[in-house]
Amino acid sequence: MRASASFLALLRDNPQESHIASHQWMLRSGMIQQITSGIYAWLPLGLRVLNNISEIVRQEQNRIGAQEALAPTLQPASLWKQSGRYADYGKEMLRIVDRHDHDLLYGPTAEEVFTLLFRTHIHSYKQLPQCLYNIQWKFRDEIRPRFGVMRGREFLMKDAYSFDLTADGAKATYAQMFQSYMRIFHRLGLTAIPVRASTGPIGGDLSHEFHIVADTGESEIFYDAALDSPMSGGGIRERMSDFNGFYACADDQHKPEACPLSGEQLRTKRGIEVGHIFYFGTKYSEPLDAFVMDQKGNRVPVEMGSYGVGVSRLVGALIEANHDEKGIKWPISVAPFAVAIAGLSKGTEDMAETLYQSLLNQGVTAFMMDLDQSAGKKFADMDMMGFPYHILIGSKWLSQGLLDIKIRATGEIISCTPTDALSWMMDRCAPEVISGKKRPGSSEPLAG
Amino acid sequence: MRASASFLALLRDNPQESHIASHQWMLRSGMIQQITSGIYAWLPLGLRVLNNISEIVRQEQNRIGAQEALAPTLQPASLWKQSGRYADYGKEMLRIVDRHDHDLLYGPTAEEVFTLLFRTHIHSYKQLPQCLYNIQWKFRDEIRPRFGVMRGREFLMKDAYSFDLTADGAKATYAQMFQSYMRIFHRLGLTAIPVRASTGPIGGDLSHEFHIVADTGESEIFYDAALDSPMSGGGIRERMSDFNGFYACADDQHKPEACPLSGEQLRTKRGIEVGHIFYFGTKYSEPLDAFVMDQKGNRVPVEMGSYGVGVSRLVGALIEANHDEKGIKWPISVAPFAVAIAGLSKGTEDMAETLYQSLLNQGVTAFMMDLDQSAGKKFADMDMMGFPYHILIGSKWLSQGLLDIKIRATGEIISCTPTDALSWMMDRCAPEVISGKKRPGSSEPLAG
């Protein structure tokens, strides 16, 4: 994409309404725009990140055999009356009356809809287990929407629903989903801490939240300091059993008098909740009549769980975890563009164009800084938008045939020839490298 | 995907509520399920088709330089009061009141939102032209929702919004969008007839609808019989200028007394409206204050157009155009899976598995009919679900080492070896062939 052909929506100053870094940088780099309180439009730059996150979530859900479907945003109130949640949900549920005076609602979650899909089509243990998910807009009428997409009203959620014959089967599915979530956060470049949580309005017996540690997190989490070392150590801890031995609770579950840890053993941190999983047995299948025939010919209610990832919130959480005073530092797995190219002086345009076309031809997402701007302005904008790698073509190109690669995350600069720059980029930004199908290469260009 | 691991939702009988073929086959093949009147969930099989159509629309919109963004589903009433449409839109607009008594609405279209995005960020002729689009769920509270996704209430629309400095520029953009639409319908395997149309609640000076001819269409269209021959002739007519000389009107624009055609020269057909484009000048930019500085330093209202494709309706229209008494015949460009594989007798399982894995490894979307069912049931289900190509492995494999390829569209059967079957499939179903990046091969296997 060329800057000159883009809908660029950069803001020079901090908007008044932004109180945390992610909200500020999303507005300043032109990722989102508020349409009304807690409701945002996603501008082209922001949508690319949102879609990249969705795609990682999709791949990891498909990997464990979950199948993608799509619930409508609006649901009939009758279905929620059947489950008994219509009255419970309170003012966060957006209630709507249509032209025929039928009661609808904008789904804040979709246990009822997916239980309905299940009960219509699945009748035998032979068809189990089943797991459906969708990535769809939800609405919760927060009394005080704030922090941009971190606590918006209309938000994108991945929600999955599992159906098993037995409680043991359902718990095995729960453990599989736990692992899928750890993989998702790992691929996003995030360290997520799984903590025991209360089940709230979803209900059930077993529940974990996944938190990203950040000073701006709205939750307080308490966990065994020993957890930090297995998580930062070599090898990814992703199985639920890796975490079972450690104390880790969200604030609503933490009872200081009952906590086995004290002093330096107990970590207390702020966390951003980016995932929440539930095992709730037959809480929905019984009232909604989702029964199957078991091996003995008995009709039994199906054992269920539900599993949510806050996809739009993750955009904010990722920025909270990856920014500095100049702007965003996107992890390569979700960056809107992997590489930005800037010609910094007259006579560098052809080289910039050649590199841009070469990268595009190889499937690399490249952004061309081709506006008539000072080098300083280009540096500032590339830093703010957070492209992981910048190719800078300046006077050194004209005098010595060398250009600079800048690594946004570290600030490191590498001088090299255009050929070396291309192969260096391919090692890190080729589609199959970013998607994890190929390991990143290690061929470093020689320093100039 | 294996049938045994799928959320299959096939119905044996015609559901009572379906009165047209597309609705019937979408329900019977388990593509959708009604959640309440005019509101559907998309089951895994249906969602794959919906996503394939969206992706073609996306590629063709990107090709003309339009940029993808995403408006929220809910919009503030205040914005529609500013444009003057809040009162006009009537009962089809779903009006909502939130917990703070603010008036919201579920967007039936998004001229106001995109005009707001534009006016916030674009201020100079130097940044023009701009064209943004989104593929997002819309809601129109139809008094009588019917025909499944053809006239649902919650529906998926691609809507684009263009911004030009001058009327001539806007008309050139309009012509470019016209061509993009013809390409989209062509890639979907549909013949769309562009007709002059009234501008309705969107307003404006110039408007075309794109209709798919089908007996079940809700509109009546009148057009020059000569149009049929250029459209079915060699080479694709896709430029607006190719159509300018021909009379073609929707019913609301057709005046028998003013029509220059008569007798056999005038075709009268039923049509399904799948696209609608508008040029409306400054109708929104003036009230919504979307002005830019022109070359002379004057503030001028931007010239706009909007352009819609009914993405979810296209699923129905495609089935209306591609079905028989056995079910759906998907064009390869949108098929949920390109190939189905069925082992029809004991001893064929290994060959079926080998072919399935080989196709998956090459990126072909393959569906494995691995349920314990009779050959007849497998034939019927593959036909109903409409997979373009079926690989049938039966007694001929055990006796002669041959299997059958069945072409769903024509019923033609080709006997060949597994190696020939694989190369035949790659010629037609490889991802780069389906996406049009590579021409379909012509290497036919020898008949067995």
What does this structure look like?
Two copies of one chain form a homodimer. By secondary structure, the first copy, chain A, is of the alpha+beta class. The first copy, chain A, folds into two domains: 3-324, Bira Bifunctional Protein, Domain 2 (BirA Bifunctional Protein, domain 2), CATH 3.30.930; 337-434, 3-Layer(aba) Sandwich (Rossmann fold). Chain A contains 13 helices and 23 strands. Chain A has helices at 21-28, 44-63, 77-83, 85-88, 111-121, 167-187, 228-232, 311-321, 349-361, 375-385, 395-400, 418-429, 431-434, and strands at residues 32-36, 39-42, 67-68, 74-76, 94-97, 103-106, 130-139, 154-164, 192-196, 206-213, 219-224, 248-250, 266-281, 291-293, 299-301, 303-310, 323-324, 327-328, 339-343, 366-368, 389-393, 403-407, 413-416. In chain A, helix 1 packs across helix 8. Chains A and B meet through strand 1, strand 2, helix 2, strand 3 and strand 4 of A and strand 1, strand 2, helix 2, strand 3 and strand 4 of B.
Query: CATH homologous superfamily of the largest domain in chain A - what is it?
Result: Bira Bifunctional Protein, Domain 2
Architecture (CATH level 2) name of the largest domain in chain A: 2-Layer Sandwich
Uncertain parts of chain A: none
- How far apart are the first and last residues' alpha carbons of chain A, in Å? 29 Å
Radius of gyration of chain A: 24 Å
Q: What do the pLDDT scores of chain A average to? A: 93
In DSSP terms (H or I, runs of 4 or more residues), the helix count of chain A works out at 13
CATH class of the largest domain in chain A: Alpha Beta
Globally, the shape of chain A reads: elongated
- How many domains of chain A? The number is 2
CATH topology tier name of the largest domain in chain A: BirA Bifunctional Protein, domain 2
Largest sheet of chain A at a glance?
9 strands, mixed
Helix percentage range of chain A: 25-40%
Structural class of chain A: alpha+beta
DSSP strand tally of chain A: 23
User: What fraction strand of chain A?
Assistant: 25-35%
Biggest interface reads: A-B, 54 and 54 residues
The oligomeric state of the chains shown is: homodimer
